[in-house]
Amino acid sequence: MSTGTPHGTAHDRSGDHGARPRHRPHPATPPRRRPRQGYPGAVWAIGDSLGITASGTVGVLDPECPGEPMRRDTVFDIASLTKILAVWSTIGCLVEDGKLQLDTQLGDFWPEVSGHPLAKVTARHLLTHTADVPLRANLRNLYGSDPQDIRDGVLREALHRPPGEAVEYTDRAALILGYLAEYLSGRSLDALADSHVWQPLGMTQTHFGPLPDGAAARCAPTELDDGTGTHLKGSAHDFSARLLGGVCDFGLGPQLSAGRVRAAFHVRLGDQQQRLHLHT
């Protein structure tokens, strides 16, 4: 993770947690400032499959409070990293458990999409952004504000073209995967991610928003909310995610610290045989 202004201090953690010799050295220097100061601060880390070699903080927590530096335990809205840390991980666990075949068409086993355009799409199409679903979420404008109406609309929407013909990054693919995970498991996405991914990795402070006031106080502020005139802290900054109660599969929902992100990616860079065994 990196971003920020130039005033952070590197903290070499190569001696932490019984670290082993590295394959190659990593620079232990904080990230350089972006032109025009595109963000106020960051928590950053450098590492590989063997662990973290260096980490630190840079800049300030809130540009409106320039005397308050960024902290290591700052909680961030992880935005589209939700796709990786929640959706892809839970889908991987379902594949490992034999509950999902990546190349089976969804209409063959999922009644909600049978007879609709998504019936010919596979989980692999959704994971690789080749399902050719609409690019924009645009949930309220198309389907209203009722969660069930949104679900029905998303799962019945037309495709741009036959699946597999083009790669187009879209939030909707992750939203559909989240619905799929809930259908196959009989559990909500937040409960599934917590039991299968976050708890096994020790990510005990990782939650979908909105967060209680005490936890929200540690959060980095995000977008300016036109309704309140304040920057959001502890709730999803994306309107579509807030519309779905903060539990939204395409991102913009979970809140966690940089240390918990490091834990998750350390597993993904580790031994091949351990990557999916998060929930056992």
TrEMBL record:
Stretches of Basic and acidic residues bias are at 9-19
Q: Beta-lactamase-related domain location, by residue? A: 36-218
Q: What is this protein called?
A: Beta-lactamase family protein
Superkingdom as given in the UniProt entry: Bacteria
| Entry keyword Amino-acid biosynthesis | no
Segments of skewed composition (Basic residues): 20-36
Q: Does the keyword Endoplasmic reticulum apply?
A: no
Species source reads Streptomyces spongiae
Record key words, sorted: Hydrolase
